[in-house]
């Protein structure tokens, strides 16, 4: 999603390397420099710096923002290329985007979210001893006793969250068990309360909202637009909207996990564990992380379980854009690797990030850390290694080249933030 927000066709895809910023110079000039960030196209880098005693700002390339704040939190580039962060001035929190601050300020802000195109920003907010959400500076009119699990529709025009609608005193077990929590969408709370809810999700078109819920201390279900499924389970994980509008969820009954769609089992298979569901953009295939037996992890795709097994963990299942291929990260012992199409890479790493597919699905890459250094890998082959830091690879629209974004560690690249475009051999 991130790769497509800024038109990739307009990016510089000529092969070659270019220095974008000098991290060592930032450290020399400001002393205190936090983790740098790079724009998706690799054309700009930024970081939080300390400009004076207990005073902070943002450096973008060679330009220092005019704004000065006592705290800066949750910085990062949006998919539209703008740099945003939460900022505090004398205890009043707001949002700064490219050195411009919202007119509104709040007692506290957290969980910043951006629309798919990066143009809209929302967050959870505390104001006075009440809680709500804010979108582009506009706070919900209705407030609540608590708020968490904030979610945003992909278009950025709606926010939803779990909210507490009933005042709860410490130790008031009876009231807690009767249900004090529900979901609010754009500030309007559902009519039914629950013991608790989590994993709030919008449908792709933003018209529907689902959440996992606990209806009693021992019964779990899914709630869609304020209405509960009639089925009750021993446990559920995150609900997933399918392409046809149905809702899939891993659900546990009788000691086994199954994939249920609209409350009914879809696959005949059951598992020791099933979670992290994903659906392909093309074809609507469903996959997830599963444990066919205790202590053995792999992926399942449309009910078919991979033959590969990992002893520690499997994470980050990702479909290729065309839905043909499926990849994940896997851990055996202390080492991580990538598995794609039920085949495992030969390389092993200390740490690894989620796999990234090229637009045509022909290539899969990732960034990884090994022995304190970072590298970028494509199809199991090293593109670059020995870096002080690296960001996820980005593939060109035709899938023939890959953009590397990193911080060098040796020679002329030492301490330099750079972008490099390489041909995929």
Describe the structure.
The protein is mainly beta and 425 residues long. The chain has a domain at 110-228. 4% of the residues lie in helices and 51% in strands. The protein contains three helices and 43 strands. The strands form ten sheets. Strands 1, 40, 41, 42 and 43 form a five-stranded antiparallel beta sheet that branches. The longest helix has 8 residues, at 23-30. The protein is globular, with a radius of gyration of 23 Å. It starts with a helix and ends with a strand. The model is unreliable at 1-5 (pLDDT under 50). Pfam families: PD40 (PF07676). InterPro entries: 6-blade_b-propeller_TolB-like, WD40. This is WD40 repeat domain-containing protein.
Strand content: over 45%
Mean pLDDT across residues: 96
How would you sum up the global shape?
A: globular
Radius of gyration equals: 23 Å
Percentage of residues assigned to helices = under 10%
Given helix and strand content, the structural type is mainly beta
Q: How many helices?
A: 3
Give a count of the beta strands, DSSP E runs of length 2 or more. 43
Measure the end-to-end span: 25 Å
The biggest beta sheet is recorded as: 5 strands, antiparallel
Please mark out the parts with pLDDT under 50 across 5 or more consecutive residues, or reply none: 1-5
Protein name: WD40 repeat domain-containing protein
Organism: Desulfobotulus pelophilus
InterPro entries: 6-blade_b-propeller_TolB-like, WD40
